[in-house]
């Protein structure tokens, strides 16, 4: 059974910008597919990964997705790259704040700021 596309990836100023197609990143299947598609979109050429995750249009995320994002952050750090999150709704932002993950991730207001980051 083919996997539903969950993310769109575009290039902006040498950085990969990922936008999510789902408003709810909550159920196990969606989180697994998002994680798999993010992993497939990352370069494996040994260069630093420069990635922006644009959460515009995302209303809710699960703790399972947070775990996947932590693993993604480690992979990006291991490459010497930079991961930036942007366009978080107040609900999604509060999930990061409540779990103290706002200290782990670079979170900026919008995509323009994310492109200019690092």
Description:
It is a single chain. With 118 residues, the protein is α/β, with parallel strands linked by helices. It has four helices and seven strands; from the N terminus they run βββαββαβαβα. The chain has helices at residues 28-41, 63-79, 90-98, 111-116; strands at residues 7-12, 15-20, 24-25, 50-54, 60-61, 82-86, 106-108. Helix 1 runs parallel beside helix 2. The chain is globular, with a radius of gyration of 13 Å. The mean pLDDT is 94.
Pattern of helices and strands: EEEHEEHEHEH
Structural class: alpha/beta
- Helix fraction? 25-40%
Distance between the termini: 39 Å
Number of helices: 4
Share in β-strands: 15-25%
Assembly category: single chain
Number of E strands: 7
Net shape: globular
Which stretches are low in confidence, meaning pLDDT under 50 for 5 or more residues running? none
In short:
By secondary structure, this protein is of the alpha/beta class. The chain has helices at 28-41, 63-79, 90-98, 111-116, and strands at 7-12, 15-20, 24-25, 50-54, 60-61, 82-86, 106-108. Helix 1 (28-41) runs parallel beside helix 2 (63-79).
